[in-house]
Batch of 3 targets.
Target 1
Amino acid sequence: MSPYTVLWLQSAGCGGCTMSLLCAESPGLFDSLEDFGIKLLWHPSLSLETGAEARAILEDIIAGRVRLDCLCVEGAIARGPRGTGHFHILGGTNRSMLSWAREIAPLAGDVVAIGSCAAYGGVTAAGPNPTDAVGLTYDGAREGGALGADFRSRSGRPVINVSGCPPHPNWVTETLMLLSLGLLGESDLDPLKRPRFLADHLVHHGCPRNEYYEFKASAGHLSEQGCMMEHLGCVGTQAHGDCNIRPWNGEGSCTRGGYPCINCTAPEFEEPGHGFSETPKIAGVPVGLPTDMPKAWFIALASLSKAATPQRLRDNAVADHIVTPPAVRSTKRS
Amino acid sequence: MSETTRLIAGPFNRVEGDLEITLDITDGRVREARANSPLFRGFEMILVGKTPLDALTLTPRICGICSVSQSMAAARAIAQAIGVTPPAPGQLVAALIHAVENLADHLTHFHLFFMPDFTRPAYAGRPWHDRMVTRFTAAEGSAIRSATRARADLLHIMGQLAGKWPHTLSLQPGGVTKAPDARDKVRILATLKACRRFLESDLFAAPLEEVAALDGEDALDRWRRAAPRGDTGLFLDVAEDLELDRMGAGPPRFLSVGAYETPAGFLFARGLFKDGATGPVPLERVEEHLAHSWMTGATAHPFAGVTQPDPDMADPAYSWCKAPRLAGETVEVGAFARQVVDNHPLARALLRDGAANVRARVLGRLLEVARTALALEAWAAALSPGASHMARSHALETGRGAGLVEAARGSLGHWLVARDGKIKSYQIIAPTTWNFSPRDSQGLPGPVEQALEGALVKPGETTPLSVQHIVRSFDPCMVCTVH
């Protein structure tokens, strides 16, 4: 069987998506790739080839001497200064990454944007966006970007956005595995072109602070155990991702680590319009409702549940360890 | 007069980010080298106008490999500006999180970035080449796979204490966001034991204590000949055969701002090593030169510095990287520099004419792996379940602070000025900004540029092997360099 070939390019980003990817486990990254016949034609951090050897691989792909099944792009595409793309000229090539990406992307069977920078612009596009950075087919939440809204790879599919800052390692390995087996179609993508296997879940699902959420027992300060939605900026009830269903680095997730979900899989998460760990409020009511929840019901349920908060949760929500354990009671019916 | 030819090497990979090196070659030797950091993102511009705490979310994303170091530097800068000190247990957890990242980075560098170069066919026939191919062939070698697994296992401590890696928000000016309980403590100890098992079987084939106690070249030589020494032994064989100790001499000055500050002080000392001794660091005499950077503005201390990229990328500049100098001079930073500044006898013995070299940098890093793993075990054993790990702090309105930490690859500084609750100025000097700086206002080359002078270039080489060994021995992180 011929291998499923992958070229990986890094542009205006931090390299953290690759660093996260190397945390893939059971099996590890290199075993996962090998077991699915996925061959890295070149990866800037992992391949031996450097300089002229690496340039030759790019030229072989462009000339059609090597079939490219998948192009992975990590990092945003810098279009500045003045549309030249010169804020990132690929080393040794005297040519911008913008130009390389535009030439190679149409040759790829599929194109995968790895991480929120490549997908939507991400942190590289924060603030005044000094480099005019965009995602491959999105400029923030608007379609367009470096390749344009109408871009389709050889398969006819749009760019697949494995967003996240960084993405979970297995969001990437599983996307590549599915593609290598021909099992990821356009209907498997959400409206922001994220694989639905990760985007059909909310970060809220499986969050260990759920009981605090149910009773509106809120943490007032970071390091406290209560729900972080009311005061600390957590948007886990609106953010798409299975972060609390599959753990990170063993047993972790942002909310398990004691800090809010900042919706890093979404376009423009880098500019929330308020501090990342504070909740904007109008007349004391947090702005931003849980996804699909009618506002009147949320307010009614919140006030009801707040009135019913068990003392245990009130105590524990503002402590950094369990001060009042759950009562031990038999659940048998006598 | 001999002819000078020019080679432009890039994309120079396995350096974390993108790099281009221009080499002017005369008589088979590099006469001059120029390091170009070809990616500019502009974090220092992005941060201006934001609330200071936003730096805790944004600056880790400068770098996917030194993410925690960036967090620590931001948290320290804000803490200094508002005058808050984390409680002792919080300092300990922060040190633990930080040291785990640095240890993982050392494993990544040695196994994935540095060693694969010796598998090249150009070295076929060398007595160590077959072993090297088995262990370090890119993506396939047995050491590459086992080290990647060991690294992923070690980073479980991040899941336990910091939520995830990279890009945690757990490090705050007042401490850490998660107070570990007793179960976290034993889980972390278990992870560290597993890490020790990997290091003592694969990397050193010796107890960590034995590696940390090596006190000079004689001791190293006796240790090496007493038994097979795993991949460290393999490296020592290569270093001897290729005379890596005569390759890549950098400046004879080493900086460390001090690593892992706990109530007990620094694990690895702060200092400036030159002329055979460690002295204080004249931090007020840090300046960034812009003469050969695609930047406009004047030479300045980072509290007064600006970041204004030159869209015309005009000559004579050739890099987006600024050129930091300490009291007007270049300094080398990194794991080896830390061990020299800390006065470790093995590190001092590895110096040649007062400077580092390829062998010294790599051995310094391996020495630090052993010393750091030992410190981690002690810190994990000292974790305090039930204690408070976070001090209450208040918002930063107006003030300034410097956050200085040691990332895996050297000294990192954040210099923050806030006014009326907003960031007025935020300047960053990363380890590879020091090591891979372009020429300064006097035209003096940066450390790697100096280290490359005299490197051997064989006929037909497009990216000379000696140049690759020298460049990668610094463990450069190009995404941090310009930021």
Target 2
Amino acid sequence: MASEHHTTVKEPLIHITKNAAMPFWKGLLIRATAVVAAFLFCSLLAALFIGANPGEFIRAFIEGNFGGGAWSLARIRIWELIKGTAILLIISLAVTPAFRMRFWNIGAEGQVLISALASAAVVYYGKGIKQEWLLLVLMLIAAVAAGIIWAAIPAIFKALWNANETLFTLMMNYVATLSVAYFLVIWTKDKNGSSSLGELQRGHLPSFGNTYLVFTIIVLLTTAFMFVYLYYSKHGYEISVVGESQRTARYIGINVKKVIVRTMILSGAICGLTGFMLVAALDHTITVDTVGGRGFTAIIVSWLANFNPLIMIGTALLVVFLNLGAGQLATTFRVSNAFPDVVVGIVIFFVIGCEFFIRYKVHFRHKNRHAAGAIHSGSDHGNDQENAAPAPAIPDKGGKLK
Amino acid sequence: MEQTEARTVPLALELKGITKTFGTIRANYNVDLDLKHGEILALLGENGSGKTTLMNMVAGIYYPDDGQIFVDGEEVVIRSPKDAFDHKIGMIHQHFKLVDLFSAAENVVLGVKDGTKYNIKEVNERVREIADRYGFNIDPKEKIHEMSVSQKQTVEILKVLYRGADILILDEPTAVLTPQETSKLFAVLRKMKEHGKSIIIITHKLHEVLSISDRVAVLRKGEYIGTVNTSESTESSLTEMMVGKKVSLSIDRSEPVNTVERLVVKGLSGVNEEGLKVLDDVSFSAFGGEILGIAGIAGSGQRELLEAIAGIYSPEAGEILYNDPKDGARVNLRKKTPLQIRELGVRLSFVPEDRLGMGLVGSMDITDNVMLRSYRSGFVLLNRNDPKKLAEEIVRDLEVATPSLKTPVRRLSGGNVQKVLVGREIASAPSLLMAAYPVRGLDINSSYAIYNLLNEQKERGVAVIFVGEDLDVLLALCDRILVINSGRVTGILDGRKATKEEVGFLMTKSDRVGDAETKGGAA
């Protein structure tokens, strides 16, 4: 057997190997387990640090999202949940085509905000327009144009001079925020120091049923459109090819520059639509916080859904659900309103972390191991025998978010 | 007789029941192997048969799941490359691990812990001494980045010898060498054998096995098939062991008939991104009904040449003239994009070297990959019906092994990926077909399937351009062979009359001065 100086060698306690492809339901099960585990972990944190017992924890989530007791209150809460989900969903849809192309547009925040500003400007300066419908059409056109301009500038720089789109789109956000601040100062000059614009009296999108119903329907139509566009249209196919390999795209004669600019124009247009609706259908005003960071949250929502518009409905709902539930908990127990962010962060951490268990398999030391076992080299990966790893749910390219 | 001999002289290396798995893939299963002192053992097997994995376990890169390793008759545990060196085992990997800015001797001594003070003069001296003993042609003070591939390989071998290895493992050492360099390497290996070293050489090239080895051990799909004496083997007996069935190793080469000039390249020159000249006044013609082979050391401009014709790379000067087989019209393809070339009605198909990085989209399934060439038909929305039918045909006719049409192509094995690519390119009924290294990494059966497809296209009157690396195949398949060397055409030979030495000489003849000596010695 092993010579005397090797008597202490042992197989390591665990070692990790790559997993072959996994059936869909199994992957789903692992992800669902991760969400549940994250929830348990959050409730533990809540119990330890803010003294909320698990019962109160769950109640806060139910109340925060569905209201408690009275139906009238419940209906308001549920519509808030739907509205929040719809806003986040449509911004997520806007960033998705670019992401499928591996164009890291983190400027949705600014693109939506500048569009909202353009809509509000039409109302502010368009006092002479008598017809309400004409005003709305002009608001929409102005918003979409602003969104397109904000998105196309970095795209053109990327296409022509390979400028880094991540930094470029990020910086465009600040320009948008400061533009809003600038115009708010001008518009509120004669309001004796109040920097708030107040409700715009005109330019309201007509509504029927619930206030948010029209908006929700438009978002659902956009979702369906985006799904078909990405999976069944020639443009969507070109986006996938460019995203996977620009060399393949050139090889089959796709004009890569054109696809980059065209796709960002679409992103910008959807951001424009969102900005228009924030002003015309939801808020009827504008502040620097009109978008409120949702342009960034949308990036996470889109990635978590693996850039699939239909799955995105679920991931957007999850994020909003967590925010509202944790927000309620923070209100009830009077803790910092950063608490919802902590909860969302923990859940996302668990969901992304569980990808490890989808891609890799963990082996524990076998008991009936050959006597001369020794330390495993740990270089299981990258072997030429091995099949490529299963398609990652979260692509590993792209670096950090936010 | 073997028994008594084994008792008196223990084997240099013996493996018993070695097993290694990666996830669900069994790379090695219950493999036995023995290596005698002072012999050259060829380890033969197709791609993916587990040769490299097995040797990596001997060299301490991997640790086996099961099995035993004996050195000089004593069981050992090899957990790291250092353990391997302690047992006087050294491996020369396919991909060199050298520091470019260091000299040969500095690379050799890097990481050696022998307790003595570092003295570069002594190291230079010892490296020179080892080089002289085995007949290496190398200057210990030369920097790695100034060296040719074969010199870098020499440094890798010196590294192992310097550490005192008695058992040397070489992983496909000839893959990067010209015929002249290969024969030089073999001479060195024979000399090492005379000095009592035991050598394992991993390869899948049969003629090399027959010329260099004493015995041949064969692996197939991770399992040990057996060991035979080289003197008692032939190419076909070894192939049968390797593949598991009889394979015809001849390539049918029909006489070209009705050849017409399809493509005329005139004075093509171009630079790469760094501004270095990669194509230098390249001129040639390709005829319909023949296979034109392109031979050259990797990176001599083959890729740029084909990409220039396909409209992907834009050369600085010259003409690429295409004669339309239908109306005889002549068009210049230079400065046209792939789409413009297609719109001109030029039926050009191109199987690029980088299959998953250029020819296909790895994450897409077979249907969507087949669609790459045809997706533009239809209005706004994609039509997946016709591509799906074509994908089914390719899978059926070319015997693509795939779980389904929905499987992303990057999950397929190399041979099947290539069949999908070649199948798609042939499906568009080309009049000019270019294929760059189409059998690289493919097993014997798949390789011959590809050769047959190319021959079929030739017989249909297609002008085929085939960039290859295996000179035996180029000489057996091609009607004419164009040799390219540092972006220049150094000769166009008749494929039926040319010899390997001629081609090898043209591939390297105008190389840098430092290489001239090596070449002179062999030629």
Target 3
Amino acid sequence: MDFALLLEKSILILILTAITLGIATYLTYGERKVAAFLQDRLGPNRAGIFGILQPIADAGKMFFKEELIPKNAEKWLFILGPGLAMITACITSAVIPWGSHLELFGRTIQLQVADVDIGILYIMGIVSVGVYGILIGGWASNNKYSLYGAVRASSQMISYELGMGLALIAVIIMSGSLSLREIVEQQSGWGGMQWNIIYQPLGFIIFFTCALAECNRAPFDLPECETELIGGYHTEYSSMKLGFYLFAEYINMFISSAVMTCMYFGGYNFPGMHQIDSQNLLAVLQIAAIFLKISFFIFAFMWIRWTLPRFRYDQLMHLGWKTMIPLAIVNMLLTGGGMLLFGK
Amino acid sequence: MSQLDTRNQDKFVSTETIDGEIATLNLGPTHPATHGVFQNVMKVDGERIISSEPTIGYIHRAFEKLAERRPYNQITPITDRLNYCSSPINNMGWHMTVEKLAGIEVPKKVDYMRVIIMELARIADHLVCNSVIGVDTGALTGFTYVFQEREKIYEMYEEVCGARLTTNIGRIGGFEREFSPVFMVKLKKFLKEFPAKFQEFDNLLTRNRIFMDRVIKAGPISAEKAMSYGFTGPNLRAAGVDYDVRVMNPYSSYGDFDFIIPVGQDGDTYDRFIVRQEEIRQSLGIIRQALDGMPEGKHYADVPSFYLPPKEEVFRSMEALIYHFKIIMGETPIPAGEVYHAVEGANGELGYYLISDGGRTPYRLHFRRPCFIYYQAYPEMVKGAMLSDAILTMSSMNVIAGELDA
């Protein structure tokens, strides 16, 4: 391992972390603006032009709020909960390929922090750890509503991870690789339009639904539904610890959209990409393409949140176990059969 | 908590639990979903409610007792604060009760004006209730759509009486002033634009699969049960009984109008929602008919001992001055007697039982508040339901804290 590679990766990690946090911050603003747009309101418009500084004001407020730890809470676990949620949310982005590669200073810089060949497995693993943040936080608060939220979150995430994993297996069968870069590269055919969604429409619908559930977004926002559980697992949290939970949710949303883009919508591939000769220009355009696709999915997440009511707990379980998982299995079998019959 | 646990232990029937572990959950009094101050101490087995023990009286303001110390015209502001989502109906119900006791005949025009205001109030109230059902299921957007329309209704109140929420609208014997031209313009604009906006809200929820799954069979009550509890209004009609005070016992010339009473089937949250949706449409029809058939005449009855004379008159004529003085001091002549008058409030039969001994204040006044009656059935309706259903049941019954506790 040479020093330059270390430096290159460190810079990439720094940039990526900054971007992830920045995006999460601005997603709060985006959410409020989208909500306002859908609800015929104005949304935040006081801080800066179009309220563009609102997230900074919000974050500042979060930092300076009084930090309250309930007397009967399990102190260390109470602190651990949001930390865990935040860490797991942040480290998932390591395996997402943001573009092919840049050629700078005579080096080939891969636009991916770690091209591990078990990329998807890594993401699924980290995401399943993410639920501990919510579970621990909800339990440690020593509040019944928080506990309800935590229990709901854990059971919901476990059920929907199964469907999600099964939907992904179909894609993996097709690509024969667990590496995200490999999967994305395989979708570059047909002038950059050979996206997996063409082969896997059902798989995508299952994955999208499960991703909504994984991020605790409406219509699956049972863990925190304010009208029943008053915020659920984060009822007792205040100041930046609450901020961490909220941030983690937005980062998760961003990462889910990125994974969805990579798995089904061709990642950084875009039509007409093969006509571009300059590698650096291509890389930049690829980054733009993937972010455009991610933004679209994030908008879809928000759109759904502000349109649909939420499920009831038992209905959620029914949907997960009786609809999503069987469908995912059928999809997996169909894909497997298709691969067996027609080959690649 | 342990005190609550041991209280009324025999009341809690703990059958069919999953693992025998029952928790106590304190829902309220400051729970955001209760839309007011209600407390429910619930025994829950996981998400399932085994029993619920409501506590009422958090905002009891002793209105019935207060009314015994107030002259008749000063009781109107008290009625504002019963069901504060539709104050005008409460106000006019009270005015009609006093008119009934004093034997005052109001001109037809006053009846029609009252009908318009009361139906506007009914629309406003139903909009709040239905959009809040949406909010409680997690669909926040419909709420913002219809609240803009409710705002327009409030602007119309403002045009008639100057107030928005606690309206104190009208007077005993009629209206304080004629409907202004601005009001008429606003009303006509509302009648023209509201149906489309309302349809938008309807499209968002009524046939939404998730919404239907959530509200169908949530908090049902049978017609028999509902009647034995004394349910009235949309909640009784949702259970399938076509009882409506406007038709059964017409007041304020409701007999002149042509409208349908929607009835439901199962008495669940969805039926209550649908009945209210349809009633909004019917109310619009009533307003249109009242507007078209508005008779000529004065906007007040000729009862100088109840209806304040115009201020210029007070300064010029002695008679007016005397009446003015007497009304303000609460020295209005009223016969001794006993009278019950009920109006179809936005969420049920709102009755006023008034006993007068001929003095300056009522001897006794009792409000028959529909919410008080609905809330008694609440523990039974949520028994065995999920926690989410319990929240929906409460919002769909439209229990308003101010009316419940009076």
